[in-house]
């Protein structure tokens, strides 16, 4: 790890974790309010779910914008701009008079808040050794994973006591706290680079150079498709738990928190396991287990054997696997891009959120008052991620063998 003192590292990781968590926090806190939002805006829960999909789209598009800006202007200036946009959009959400306005304002909120996710990943690559990146990402997940514990519970209580609009007021307060932390505690990890071109052709060429790298596309897609299972759960869980199993808003918050503990625990166990096993080995086992759990969840749903407790237990195990997959795959996808960490981080996040937006929308489109749409999409994501990982690893190994043969040929010729 870098040569900062432990206390400095603690505050640094805390701020980076909060920056990464602003997106999940913005999602999780208003989930228990879906029925109240639908009632207050005279619409349906399915329509309110589209505001979740628009948030995912905003995060995806926004990260592609901020990647080049973080390379050109350094890390902190884009953070101030993006989080200010987030603040104003949150105010708009609190005052929204229709579901259409809420959908648009959530898009703007995501466009502002996603800068924290891009900058945090890039700064991990800036400030820490490559060998430490997976451990740092696991520590960031500890901060991020607190969000699914605190946010839905807080959102449920706030909605019950004050109404759903106050959820967005609390998000404004969180944003102001993060802005203060950036100003007082976060160092500038990369100086502005005026030579970095912001012309569309140069930006597209830069992204193309990153995405065609086997190391990047293998692990970026593995992380993104696996994480899409989490977003399918997030998008479908309000209907499943509150609509099908008839739990209250407060109970839903506690269930969401309990399931999130699997993600937290696994991400922290991951830092210990990394001392013995490689990231590739951990990903392989985690995805195999996650695929199996997904298939079992679908089978039990089709058979009608998935009561509340079985559903909670299986989703808990599913997210435990996610806690092992995501930090390792994210670290491996960025490992080769120290000179271009901002753009690589943006592309990673954009791929992740694009796939997440699609899966969340799929769960909404195929909603049939059962848990099957959520369960089926979760299972498909796990199986898809495992398939991409195996295929990508084969490509990387073949390329490595070909490179080794070429180097051996060159060495033999040079000795003649």
From TrEMBL:
Is Iron-sulfur among the key words of this record?
Answer: no
Q: Where in the cell is it found?
A: Cell membrane
The alphabetized UniProt keywords are: Cell membrane, Membrane, Transmembrane, Transmembrane helix, Transport
Looking at the record, the residues that make up the Major facilitator superfamily (MFS) profile domain are 12-396
Q: Which GO terms describe its molecular function?
A: xenobiotic transmembrane transporter activity
Q: Which GO terms describe its cellular component?
A: plasma membrane
- GO terms (BP aspect): xenobiotic detoxification by transmembrane export across the plasma membrane
The record gives the membrane topology as: Multi-pass membrane protein
Q: Which family does it belong to?
A: Belongs to the major facilitator superfamily. Bcr/CmlA family.
Listed PANTHER family: MAJOR FACILITATOR SUPERFAMILY, POLYAMINE TRANSPORTER 2-RELATED
Q: What is this protein called?
A: Bcr/CflA family drug resistance efflux transporter
Q: Which organism is it from?
A: Niastella vici
């Amino acid at each position: 790890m870098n040569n900062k003192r432990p206390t400095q590292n603690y505050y640094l990781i805390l701020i980076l974790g909060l920056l990464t968590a602003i997106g999940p926090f913005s999602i999780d806190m208003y989930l228990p309010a879906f029925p109240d939002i639908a009632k207050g805006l005279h619409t349906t829960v399915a329509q309110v779910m589209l505001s979740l999909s628009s948030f995912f789209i905003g995060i995806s598009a926004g990260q592609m914008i901020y990647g080049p800006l973080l390379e050109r202007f350094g890390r902190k200036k884009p953070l101030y701009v993006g989080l200010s946009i987030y603040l104003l959009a949150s105010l708009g959400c609190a005052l929204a008079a229709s579901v259409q306005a809420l959908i648009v304002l959530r898009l703007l909120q995501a466009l502002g808040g996603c800068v924290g996710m891009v900058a945090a990943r890039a700064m991990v690559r800036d400030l820490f050794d490559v060998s430490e990146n997976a451990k740092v990402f696991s520590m960031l997940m500890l901060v991020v994973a607190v969000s699914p514990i605190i946010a839905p519970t807080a959102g449920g209580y706030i909605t019950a006591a004050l109404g759903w609009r106050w959820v967005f007021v609390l998000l404004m307060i969180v944003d102001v706290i993060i802005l203060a932390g950036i100003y007082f505690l976060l160092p500038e990890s990369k100086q502005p680079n005026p030579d970095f071109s912001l012309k569309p052709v140069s930006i597209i060429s830069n992204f193309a150079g990153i995405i065609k790298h086997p190391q990047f596309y293998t692990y970026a897609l593995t992380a993104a498709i696996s994480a899409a299972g989490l977003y399918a759960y997030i998008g479908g869980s309000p209907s499943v738990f509150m609509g099908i199993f008839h739990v209250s808003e407060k109970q839903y918050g506690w269930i969401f928190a309990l399931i999130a503990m699997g993600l937290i625990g696994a991400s922290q166990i991951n830092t210990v396991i990394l001392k013995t096993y490689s990231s590739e080995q951990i990903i392989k086992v985690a995805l195999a287990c996650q695929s199996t759990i997904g298939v079992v969840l679908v089978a039990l749903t089709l058979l009608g054997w998935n009561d509340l407790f079985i559903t909670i237990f299986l989703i808990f195990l599913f997210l435990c696997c996610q806690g092992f997959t995501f930090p390792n795959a994210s670290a491996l996808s960025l490992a080769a891009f120290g000179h271009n960490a901002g753009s690589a981080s943006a592309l990673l996040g954009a791929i992740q959120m694009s796939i997440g937006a699609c899966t969340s929308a799929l769960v909404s489109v195929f909603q049939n008052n059962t848990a099957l749409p959520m369960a089926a999409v979760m299972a498909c994501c796990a199986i898809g991620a495992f398939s991409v990982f195996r295929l990508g690893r084969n490509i990387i190994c073949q390329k490595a063998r070909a490179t080794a043969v070429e180097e051996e040929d060159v060495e033999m010729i040079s000795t003649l």
